[in-house]
Amino acid sequence: MMKIKNLFKSKLMIFCIQILILIIFISISNYKLQIDFDPSASEQQFIIQFLANIILYNNSFGFVYINLTWIIVSLIPILIFSDYKKAYSMNLTTFFFPNFFFYVFYWRYSEIYFTSIFPTFIIESIILGITIAFTSIGLSLILNFIKSSIIKTKVENVEQIEHLNTIECPKCGIKFNSIPKYCFNCNNLITNELGESGGKEK
Question: What are 188's strand-pairing partners?
């Protein structure tokens, strides 16, 4: 059980899950960002186009869709890790890979169009990266706050229960974490059979 848990916490597994979810989202929605290619890039068009569909947009719908998709994908490390640094580090690592290969392949196989659209695309990538970073940090901190509040509430409840089960001997003042019949220190009757406080010695 522990090995399975550690496997899902490994960065490689999280990366694969995030990429798989991105592929599923893009495939189901049939989202496509149309980009132009040099004639020499015919064999690499599919890969470049696929990477562009994951990270880029050219209208308001695309902006909302891509950002929302990445926010959903970013929830995985946020829920797995309790540390916001690990969460945003993992999310930015996952975001870096498709960006890196898109820009490298597009520049390598379609240099003319790459030069003309690079400033626009790189700004979009930076904005999306900032969104992912802020989402990772913000949601991680909110989640940690909720968890700490729940833990604090549980501790307070336990302390209240302990307080209710604490009784003090009226004669010698010694405290008990239970409700005994006689005080072990002075043999004073603390409670009788009806649970009422007493004051006699045995």
Answer: 201
Structure confidence by residue, pLDDT tens digits, 94-149 = 999 999 999 999 998 888 889 888 999 999 999 999 999 999 999 989 988 888 88
CB 37 within 8 A of CB 119: no
pLDDT of 36 reads 85
Q: What is the DSSP string of the chain?
A: -HHHHHHHHSHHHHHHHHHHHHHHHHHHHT--------GGGTTTHHHHHHHHHHH--SSHHHHHHHHHHHHHHHHHHHHH-S-HHHHHHHHHHHHHHHHHHHHHHHHHH-HHHHHHHHHHHHHHHHHHHHHHHHHHHHHHHHHHHHHHHHHHHHHHHHHHHHHHT-EE-TTT--EESS--SB-TTT-BB-B-TTS-B---B-
Q: Which two tokens stand for residue 28?
A: 């189901």
Residue given tokens 């490390």 in the structure block: 77
Segments making up each domain of the chain, as ranges: 11-28+37-161, 166-202
Residue numbers in the chain where pLDDT is lower than 50: 193-196, 198-202
pTM for the full model? Answer: 0.69
Q: Exposure string (b/e) for 146-155, b if CB count within 10 Å is 16 or more?
A: eeeeeeeeee
Rounded Cα distance between 19 and 82, Å, is 21
